[in-house]
Amino acid sequence: MPTLAALREQRHRERLDGLRQHVQAVATAFPGGEVWLFGSLARGDWDAYSDVDLLAIAPTRAAANALADGLLDARLGDDVLALTHERWQLLRHSDDPYWRAIGRDALRLDRP
Question: Which CATH number fits domain 4-108: 1.10.3720.10, 2.50.20.10, 3.20.20.70, 3.30.460.10?
């Protein structure tokens, strides 16, 4: 009989795989874009009340906003933040502990 931890890990993998598949389908319409999952689902400490936090990263602010809108329209994320590639790199490597944690834990979803 599987342990509770094993069942939780299996459920986490299944949820991530399903989300990744849907994100990849949306992201193909936005060349140069990236989609990153952050927060409790990315860290693996999610629960039934956890939301889906996504970063929509693109070369320009307009492209990032369009990607974020596409993800929201597809109902793939509850919170979607739009950032340029340059801004994402600055934030994830900054001294801000919030963004450093996001940069450390985030999972890229737009590619296999």
Answer: 3.30.460.10
